[in-house]
Design brief:
The complex is a heterotrimer of chains A (289), B (444) and C (270).
Chain A lengths: L2 H39 L1 E2 L7 E2 L2 H8 L1 H31 L5 H11 L6 H11 L6 H6 L13 H24 L2 H6 L6 H31 L2 H7 L10 H11 L3 H31 L3
Antiparallel strand pairs in A: 1-2
Helix pairs in contact in A: 1-12, 2-12, 3-7, 3-9, 5-7, 5-10, 9-12, 11-12
Chain B lengths: L9 H19 L4 E7 L7 H15 L3 E7 L3 H13 L6 E5 L3 H6 L7 H6 L4 H5 L7 H4 E2 L2 E2 L2 E6 L1 E6 H6 L11 H11 L7 E4 L6 H12 L18 H15 L11 H10 L2 E7 L3 H7 L4 E4 L9 E2 L1 E6 L6 H14 L2 H11 L12 H9 L1 H13 E2 L7 H17 L4 H22 L7
Parallel strand pairs in B: 1-2, 1-3, 8-9, 11-13
Antiparallel strand pairs in B: 3-12, 4-5, 6-12, 7-9, 7-10
Helix pairs in contact in B: 2-15, 10-11, 11-18, 11-19, 18-19
Chain C lengths: L1 H27 L20 H9 L2 H32 L5 H11 L8 H10 L6 H5 L6 H12 L3 H9 L4 H12 L1 H16 L3 H6 L8 H10 L7 H21 L1 H10 L5
Helix pairs in contact in C: 1-13, 2-13, 3-7, 3-10, 8-9, 10-14, 12-13, 13-14
Classes of the chains: A mainly alpha (289), B alpha/beta (444), C mainly alpha (270).
Chain lengths: 289, 444, 270
């Protein structure tokens, strides 16, 4: 073979050689699983009978009140974690933007939780929320909140679970989500502050939040460690989340069909919600500042 | 033979050690059968460490078998892990399975029947089970075939704070016997404004269902079909009334704190004096004994119609998919662990019953029972009033159907009828596929 | 006026943030069951009894070893895959590049944890169930890392590459000996983010491994805390939590600036 053609072949193959390792794992653990769940979700297999193809799993899924509850809870969970943690992250970043020993110490305190596992945070918070003897009840007792069962009451449990996640995530959003230019440019000078916020600050945040928001949405779907270890979806399903529901169907109820169908719906919802931000993400990755 | 409880002379001990090590050296030439045993620790206390010690003892006494004890969390976790291991083609040789899950293992052919192994030893299934307390047979056998060998068993027990009783003008020697007594005593112990309560018990998943079935049975109910895994009786009048009782404790009599407590929250409240009486597993007797600073006593669970105490606890099973050598090794381990001496040791350490009746004839056990009247109360309740543990097709979600409703009752003022109806319809939907393949499958 | 108010509010909030940690350290140093378990400031009697109990009740040496192996193994393979992929995206033009780019982009969202059910089946089919490589495998490709390296490589002036290629270096040598050293800050940032994430991961290791001898710290802590060995012994639980979270916290306090800049860096600002 003439040297030139061999050389061209080698050059042509080069990008694929470089990408091959990544692609192998991407295909095996991201895209093949997608095919698997799609297929599994349409395979209907009830006890003792033969497998058939159809939408049986989806009908069962939508008829299952636990699924509806888990999906709704997840929406609440997403709102109840993303909004507070992003707002707090902004607030902290702005208020502590000077570099003094004091502000650095404060920022460190807020950042620390991102270094420990969510299960560790959950373990700590079981004590925070312990009725009677726990931190919250103990210190808020004199203010009348003596014996609140934060994790044992369906109306409070989800909020408590959100609190754990907000505590853990705010630090990382503060670091990764607020651009330095914003902090440099922030000058509060009285009445013009509001106008400045609307016309200068918010647009500056756009690209960054275009990136943080999808990640935050993924987190809201994926951060269920505290539900697995502390509440197990209870009480009365009030802390059941989509991924926990999937975990339950797969591990506890041995219902692969339901687990697959629920996964498909979760992935679809995620993609739809992040569709808008995908463009911003892509732009953010393609162009540097 | 367990060596910890014998008194040996120094010389005899030395002699035995030399012989044992010589024998060990000789046997070590042949490879030991290596097996694992999954075990849960479902109650509070240092049980995992004790189990490691017992298994170490077994390994020393049986040089041809090497058992690795694998701590697998709660009963529910142990179930998932065993199932996953079976599916992955790597089942443990033995597992301590929550007694109420055994029925599903039988339905799914995920555990082997032990009748053949029993026959090889020259016994019969009935003769074998006769060694254990009668109530345990309900969960260990299926249509006469033995699938599980009871290892540790418990029943719910009423624990009460002696000092709190005295302070409230109650006689600690006369614990409540009926539900009426119970509520009366609870009223005297409660001061809702001051965060002091008469009654509490764990209502997290698993405990909740267990205690709900207890109350339903104490009210004369059946709760579930003990012979067939396809039916539950959540809407029978006795069960609905029991749910109403729970509702009243929280919302009407105001003697039980609203909300769901888990076992740690319950015991924390008992230790600190916030709650005067709790229902808890006898398996936690050891834990309470070690941590309760004030004097306490135990009593039967109060009755409304009959005394009833469903058993809890775990039995040893041999999962499907194990080779005959592994099965044989597992069988040796199982017989050793459930022998009167070892069962007795485990019982004394934890507070669980020794399921093997002969354990209570041994001198160490007699001594222990004399020194611990609380343990005697628990045993008597088991002997006289033991009942089966809720077990159906898809036990966990069917159990949760009721638990979600009980948890709702604890938190909001919903009616017992509505809760029971909801639980029943959820359960029926889950049981339907099994029913269609069994009871509803009539000849064509 | 406003900045001062903001500062005070932020300071107060930061103190609230620190409360769980303050309790964690305090409770872990007070052996036994003190009456005021909720105290936030250590008061005598103090001691390390809880740490001893926690150490004995759990299997920390095994958990530490497994966690280090998993994080190290993942990082080692990631460093190879992300540098190669990053270079391909940074410098090479080839048909199908946009499609591949989107495939990578989507992986930022379709994280392995979301696909936990089918990934478990894959692991079992590959014979990797209950094995440490089974935990590691889904993470060997990292879109995040690839994009980070792409950004880093593009920032390197082409002169370096051209010089190397004139010397006759092949692509792999170019990446290894020229680009990687120049992109070190990005690699370190990526390493810190990767190790932090995988050290703290829970649900996937929980499902992929069942033997205690192969469990990682997070799973060990969960079995330790939610079960029975700790049952109500809050000091021991607190000590166990310190043992699990300690290494990363310590690393952070020592290399604070590195850590912070890693997380700020990897915000992939655009």
């Amino acid at each position: 073979m003439p040297r030139q053609r061999a050389g061209t072949l080698r050059i042509r193959a080069r990008p694929w050689l470089l990408l091959a390792p990544s692609l192998v794992f991407l295909l095996a653990f991201t895209y093949w699983p997608l095919v698997q769940v799609l297929e599994g979700s349409f395979r209907d297999q009830a006890f003792g009978s033969v497998a058939s193809w159809g939408i049986g799993n989806y009908t069962r899924l939508l008829a299952d009140p636990h699924f509806g509850r888990a999906a709704w809870n997840n929406v609440l969970y997403a709102a109840g974690t993303i909004v507070p943690s992003v707002l707090l992250a902004l607030g902290f970043a702005l208020a502590l933007r000077e570099t003094t020993l004091f502000t650095m110490a404060a920022r460190t305190l807020v950042v620390l939780p991102l270094l420990i596992p969510l299960v560790a945070a959950a373990a700590l918070f079981t004590f925070v929320f312990l009725p009677g003897e726990g931190l919250l009840d103990w210190y808020l007792g004199p203010f009348g909140l003596r014996a609140v069962n934060w994790l044992g009451s369906p109306s409070l449990a989800l909020g408590a679970v959100c609190a754990i996640t907000v505590w853990k995530n705010t630090g990382s959003y503060m670091l990764a989500g607020v651009p330095q230019e914003l902090l440099d440019a922030a000058r509060i000078d009285g009445a013009r502050a509001v106008a400045r916020f609307r016309h200068v600050t918010l647009p500056m945040l756009g690209p960054t939040f275009g990136f943080v928001l999808p990640i935050a949405l993924v987190n809201a779907l994926v951060q269920v460690d505290q539900v697995v270890t502390v509440t197990q979806g209870g009480p009365s399903d009030s802390t059941n989340l989509l991924l926990y529901y999937i975990y339950q169907q797969a591990e506890q109820n041995h219902d692969a069909g339901l687990a697959a169908a629920a996964t498909v719906i979760g992935v679809a919802a995620l993609l739809v919600l992040t569709m808008a931000s995908l463009r911003t993400m892509e732009r953010g990755i393609h162009y540097e500042s | 033979m367990p060596t910890t409880e014998f008194h040996m002379t120094r010389r005899a001990a030395l002699g035995a050690a030399i012989v044992a090590s010589a024998a060990g050296l000789a046997v070590r030439a042949r490879a030991a059968t290596e097996i694992e045993m999954f075990f849960p620790v479902p109650v509070q206390g240092k049980l995992a460490t004790e189990m490691q010690r017992l298994v170490g003892l077994f390994n020393t006494q049986h040089p041809d078998i090497k058992v690795t004890p694998v701590y697998t969390g709660s009963y529910d976790d142990t179930n998932f892990k065993t199932r996953a291991a079976i599916q992955a083609g790597r089942p443990p040789a033995a597992a301590i399975m929550s007694a109420n899950f055994i029925r599903e293992y039988v339905i799914d052919s995920a555990a082997i029947a032990l009748d053949e192994l029993i026959a090889k030893d020259g016994g019969t299934p009935q003769g074998f089970m006769a060694e254990f307390w009668p109530a345990l047979a309900l969960n260990a056998t299926d249509h006469g075939r033995v699938y599980g060998v009871p290892f540790q068993n418990s029943t719910p027990l009423l624990f009460y704070n002696v000092q709190a009783f005295k302070d409230a003008g109650l006689d600690p020697d006369k614990p409540p016997v009926t539900w009426q007594d119970w509520v009366d005593a609870a009223r005297k112990l409660s001061k809702p404004g001051a965060d002091k309560w008469g009654i509490a018990w764990p209502n997290s998943y698993d405990y909740c269902g267990w205690l709900a079935s207890t109350l339903a049975m104490a009210n004369g109910g059946q709760y579930y079909d003990t012979a067939y895994g396809g039916q539950v009786y959540y809407t029978e009048p006795a069960t609905v009334a029991a749910l109403r009782f729970i509702h009243d404790l929280v919302h009407t009599h105001k003697v039980m704190p609203p909300g769901v407590l888990d076992p740690n929250g319950t015991t924390a409240a008992f230790f600190s004096g916030r709650v005067g009486m709790i229902l808890l597993s006898t398996g936690a007797l050891g834990f309470i004994r070690d941590n309760m600073k004030q004097p306490f006593r135990v009593a039967f669970v109060p009755k409304n119609v009959v005394n009833a105490a469903p058993v809890g606890g775990g039995s040893l099973i041999i999962p499907a998919g194990n080779s005959p050598e592994r099965q044989a090794a597992a069988w040796t381990l199982i017989k050793w662990l459930t022998s009167p001496e070892i069962a007795g040791q485990w019982s004394r350490f934890t507070g669980y019953f020794a399921p093997n009746r002969a354990a209570y004839d041994l001198p160490e056990m007699k001594q222990y029972m004399a020194a611990n009247p609380n343990a005697g109360v628990a045993l008597e309740q088991l002997n006289r009033y033991g009942r089966g543990w809720f077990a159906t097709y898809k036990t966990v979600p069917v159990r949760k159907a009721m638990e979600d409703q009980v948890q709702a009752i604890l938190n909001t003022d919903i009616s017992a009828d509505a809760a029971a109806a909801r639980a029943q319809s959820d359960a029926d939907a889950l049981l339907r596929p099994y029913l269609e393949q069994t009871a509803l499958k009539l000849p064509v | 006026m406003l900045p001062l108010l903001g500062l005070v509010a932020a300071a107060a909030a930061a103190l609230v943030w620190a409360v769980p940690f303050a309790w964690m350290v305090t409770a872990s140093l007070r052996p036994g069951v003190p009456a005021d378990v909720a105290a936030l400031w250590p008061a005598p009697p103090l001691g390390f009894g809880n740490y001893l109990d926690a150490w004995q009740s759990g299997d920390f040496p095994t958990w530490y070893l497994n966690t280090v192996l998993v994080c190290g193994g993942i990082l080692a393979v990631q460093l190879v895959t992300v540098t190669m992929a990053g270079y391909a995206f940074a410098r090479l033009r080839f048909p199908g590049r946009d499609v591949v780019f989107v495939l990578f982009l989507l992986q930022l969202l379709l994280v392995p944890t979301l696909l936990i059910a089918p990934n478990l089946t894959t692991i079992v089919a590959l014979g990797l169930y209950d094995r440490l490589p089974g935990i590691m495998a889904p993470y060997f490709a990292s879109a995040f890392g690839a994009f980070l390296m792409r950004q880093a490589f593009r920032a390197i002036p082409r002169d370096f590459e051209e010089a190397a290629m004139l010397d006759g270096a092949g692509v792999f040598a170019l990446i290894r000996h020229v680009l990687v050293p120049l992109a070190r800050p990005s690699l370190i940032a990526f390493a810190i983010v990767s190790v932090t994430f995988h050290w703290n991961e829970f649900l996937w290791p929980l499902m992929a491994v069942s033997s205690p001898s192969r469990q990682v710290l997070t799973v060990g802590l969960a079995s330790f805390a939610s079960g029975s060995e700790a049952g109500g012994e809050w000091g021991v639980l607190a000590a166990g939590t310190v043992l699990v979270g300690g290494p990363l916290l310590l690393a952070f306090l020592v290399f604070q600036r590195r850590f912070v800049s890693s997380f700020v860096f990897t915000g992939l600002k655009g």
